[in-house]
Amino acid sequence: MYEKYNEMTLISQPNEQKNPYEQAAQLVIEQALFRYEKEQLMKKIDKALISKDESLFLTLSTQYNELRSRYRHLEDVRS
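^ IDEAL domain-containing protein, sequence as received from the core. Prediction below:
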């Protein structure tokens, strides 16, 4: 049913194969993962800024942009 995407994200069956409860549960899981990953990256970005580590900041910023891109479908969902 689920395929491992990376250590924090699961990819499941297409939405049209799920019932409404599965869709809602998947949305909650994805929102929680996004918030957690975003919070962790933001903390690391803040530390990189404080320590003036430009290369680390750029690396983390790229990861942050990739995270936002991966969870783009959640942008219109209000929590």
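Residues 20-50 form the longest helix (31 residues).
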